[in-house]
Amino acid sequence: MESIEEIISRTGTHYCVECRKCSSACPVTRVNKTFSPARIVELALFGFENEVSSTLNIWSCLGCAICTNLCPSGVNFLDFIKEVRKFAIVNGNNGLHAHEGIFSILAKMMANSKIKKKNDWIDDLKIANKGEVMYFVGCIPFFDIMFKNIDITPTDTARNTVKILNACGITPVVAQEEVCCGHDALWNGDEETFKKLAMKNVKMIKEKGIKKIIFSCPECYRTFKLDYACYFDFDVEMIHISEFIADAIAKKKISLKGKEAVATYHDPCRLGRHMGIYEEPRSVLKTIDGLELKEMDHTKENALCCGTSTWMACTSDSEKMRKERLEEVKMAGANVLITACPKCQIHFNCTLSNENMGIEVKDFVTLCGEQLEIP
């Protein structure tokens, strides 16, 4: 494990000029003035290592990347906070896990056992056990079980992803042997669990002869494409489903039938600021006749976060952030909020289950699957 000094050097944290632009733009600071990215950086720079790793504030960071994108000095606060959390774990500062820590427990179980996922959500769709193209499902089948109380079915995303791939003549590998990508473990400072999960996935993918992986979850996409590359020799083509659909429509392999609605698109942090995918989902949605797509005040690089990232610190502060974003939906004149992230969908629906705002949250891939036409 790197020392704090090494983390400061590698992430460019020593270039901080204390302009506090990070804190002024931070969505957490907007609702909780006790949290400040600049303050955490200053504590590290002045040698207060114990204070940095022992404060609960390091778990308040969403990893949304707004601060990193805006920093004029090029400080990578995103990586800084991710690495410092490893020290927090060593010092017994484990943060506040939402849902009784069930998802952290589940990740550890997958990392240390031979649990196989059930594919009972597939219905009559075509999948393969081996092949060159894989659809990495991620943890959304488990979300189905956990969030029935808010009337949400995340496996609709998985079903419609396979449906679209089948329509394009692809029978994807959907592997029961796949395990959690490790995103949450890595961002929660549990590098050991992350490595175990990642090694299982890499081994399975190589054994199945996979050459291309398609993701519907932005967190899985980011983790495979950016984080696995830091640990493994892993040369596989990777794309997000929005990129695949945009390309398939452009090549006239599929089209989307009309739907009357006034909608807006929410940019997930991992898909947008982390991976730079903004235009593909919008270009796809604009092909749907009758769908009026409006932009919110904060969009693309400046989009507001849904308020929770790794099932950590799901507090009244995150609730305030979600309400702020949902108010932007109303201000844009939309009644349908489309997003390409299962966690964003869950968090917004959680708030709406207690708030009558007249907004429907719609998964991007599910919408595309429902409107699918084959020319």
Can you give a write-up of this model?
The chain is an alpha/beta fold and 375 residues long. The chain folds into three domains: 4-90, Orthogonal Bundle (Fumarate Reductase Iron-sulfur Protein, Chain B, domain 2); 99-245, Rossmann fold (3-Layer(aba) Sandwich); 254-373, 3-Layer(aba) Sandwich (Rossmann fold). The chain contains 19 helices and nine strands. The protein has helices at 4-10, 21-25, 27-31, 37-45, 49-54, 66-70, 77-90, 102-112, 140-146, 155-167, 183-187, 191-207, 218-227, 241-250, 270-274, 279-285, 316-331, 342-352, 364-370, and strands at 133-136, 212-215, 237-240, 255-256, 261-266, 291-294, 336-339, 360-363, 372-373. The protein is globular, with a radius of gyration of 20 Å.
The number of distinct structural domains comes to 3
- The amount of beta strand, in percent, is 5-15%
CATH architecture of the largest domain: 3-Layer(aba) Sandwich
**Number of extended strands:** 9
What's the tally of helices?
19
Please mark out the parts with pLDDT under 50 across 5 or more consecutive residues, or reply none: none
Gap between N and C termini, in Å?
A: 54 Å
Average pLDDT metric: 92
Largest sheet: 4 strands, parallel
Given helix and strand content, the structural type is alpha/beta
The helix/strand order is HHHHHHHHEHHHHEHEHEEHHEHEHEHE
The helicity comes to 40-55%
Question: Gyration radius, to the nearest Å?
Answer: 20 Å
What sort of overall outline do the alpha carbons produce when their principal axes are compared?
A: globular
Strand order in the sheet with the most strands: 6-5-7-8
CATH fold node name of the largest domain? Rossmann fold
Oligomer: single chain
* CATH top-level class of the largest domain: Alpha Beta
